[in-house]
Specification:
heterodimer, A: three-stranded antiparallel sheet, 36% helix, 23% strand, B: mainly beta, seven-stranded mixed barrel
Chain lengths: 88, 153
């Protein structure tokens, strides 16, 4: 890992097409401006982690079995589809 | 194309029918091809089965079937990249997680799966909206009650 110190207004250039600029520093918050190609996805780290974690949970094929059981127990699913707002 | 699956047995799916996630999904970057397996007739649920990994399957739900006021904006860049337009609007799904007590199943509204069915292109996008989380209950009050109907199945 590379750790660099930058001051307000200074930039980092990553590869040929990503530029990160420090635009504000206040207390323990740093505001960054990122210029990157559209194909580069940028996430807040903790949000990305949460989505990866939820995807891993959701990828368990136990989910499929659960939903299959649900159908055998009645048509709750189809019923609910017709009244989506009732359960909110 | 024959797809081996743990849950549904072998599936014969035409290659042009597969959904392509060009960038994979968060946590599954190498998984780019999926088949959609219907749950059953008129169900808002559908299974997203990996073409490469037999045991990898997500359960999706049509987001708007349960969350009528769900909303988010798809930026021009993303719409363009996915081939979406006013003439070819996206279909929106949420990935569902089902715990042991299935009534507590939740949908990930923070990271919807946006699908262009015309071109079979899809992407799980991450919203920049603090209103939504990875876990919204589909049945916040538990199962809709329908006791005493004498149903046998």
């Amino acid at each position: 890992m590379l750790a660099l110190t930058r001051r307000l207004g200074e930039r980092l250039v990553i590869g040929d097409d990503i530029v990160v600029t420090v635009v504000e520093v206040r207390g323990d918050s740093v505001r960054l401006a990122i210029e990157a190609p559209k194909t580069v996805k940028i996430y807040r780290g903790e949000i990305y982690d949460a989505i990866v974690a939820e995807n891993k949970l959701a990828a368990d094929s136990q989910n499929v079995k659960q939903l299959s059981n649900l159908v055998i127990n009645g048509d709750l699913v189809a019923k609910n589809q017709n009244t989506p707002r009732k359960n909110r | 194309m024959l797809i081996e699956t743990t849950n549904f047995g072998p599936l014969d799916v035409a290659e042009r029918e597969l959904l392509r996630f060009a960038q994979g999904l968060p946590g599954f970057p190498g998984e780019t091809l999926f088949a959609l397996v219907p749950h059953r007739e008129n169900s808002p649920f559908v299974f997203l089965q990996s073409a490469a990994t037999p045991g990898l399957v997500f359960t999706l739900v049509e987001s708007f079937a349960f969350f009528g006021d769900y909303e988010f904006e798809i930026g021009d860049e993303l719409a363009c990249g996915l081939g979406l337009s006013a003439d070819n609007p996206p279909q929106v799904f949420s990935i569902v997680t089902i715990p042991e007590n299935a009534a507590e199943m939740t949908a990930n509204l923070l990271a919807p799966v946006v699908v262009n069915f015309r071109d079979r292109a899809a992407m799980q996008i991450v919203l920049d909206n603090r209103k939504y989380t990875t876990r919204h209950r589909l049945f916040p009050q538990g199962w809709p009650s329908r006791k005493g109907t004498g149903r046998d199945e």
